[in-house]
Amino acid sequence: MIPLARPWTTEAEEAAVLRVLRSGWLAAGPEVAALEAGFAERTGRAHGIAVSSGTAALELVLQALDVGPGDEVLCPALTWPSPAHAIARLGARAVLVDVDPEDWNGAPEAFAAARTPATRAAIAIDQFGNPVRAAALRAALGDLPLVEDAACALGSSFADGAPCGSLGVAACFSLHPRKVITCGEGGVVVTDDGDLAERLRVLRNHGQRAPGAFTSPGANLRLSDVNAAIANAQLARLDAILDARRTHAEALRARLGAHYRLQLGPAGSRPNHQTLGALLPPGRDREMFIAAAAERGVQVGRLSYAVDRLGQVGDQGPLPNARALDERGVAFPLFPTMTIDEREKVADVLEAIA
Fold first, then answer.
1. Which end of the chain, N or C, is less surrounded by CB atoms within 10 Å?
2. Which CATH superfamily is domain 238-352 in?
């Protein structure tokens, strides 16, 4: 079975873990500091703050922005539930905006229409590594604090050439195994705001500003040096990972574009191809399609979720594009260690069952 994703680990990761184990410093230490600096450099930001997951990154940023009960936060309706859950866990209300039918990101005009006097912030998601329309979003939201959920978008760039992760007051990345680089679990926040960065560092560490000085209630959301060492080894070869992903994505898109409705990016943007997604035609049974691919040795998965259908944020009315992708969206195999033979088999099978 050719899987949806296959993490790429090498002897570099093994050596990095051994180095940390032999150092005797397993908690937040030099590897974490190096990872924070590396993410800040790749995104052109002043500060990086490593945390235990991408979900933790989102929740901490919202908490540091003082989002709480009575507030509304705008959030795309199509997403893994982490952003909406982070909003809800702080007692605020997630206001869902529909996604664009081509790039599958929250539509700037939908963000602008959903804003009310209670809106405290907005989360924009680079869905599956596909960059948002950054300039249009900035214009639509004005002075509203914008948080970029760049969980999937390390190495992607906006239409103006700026790296994903450079948008808004802060941006959040994930290091989950499905992401472009991984250490199993982990996350990183990047920001240019020194005060916000300091508050995030306090909140991730039990609310402790200095040894024994607990200034606010905080959780333990730190990243270990073991995890950071693995991520650093992968960050060092990020460009090679991106090159391999783009090579496979371009070849697969060339074969499959005539058969499936694929995600499109804003003109001039450059995605990292974290996921190769497609929208099946109306009436096509997704489960039968997934089973047909599996019978032929290719794993196909569900693409994502319409968050209002999960029960935590309530039905929020017509969200046709998000719901179409929820019902008919699929993800195809794509990973940097894919061989040419594997890639051709994926294309052959998906063409045969289109």
1. N
2. Aspartate Aminotransferase, domain 1 (3.90.1150.10)
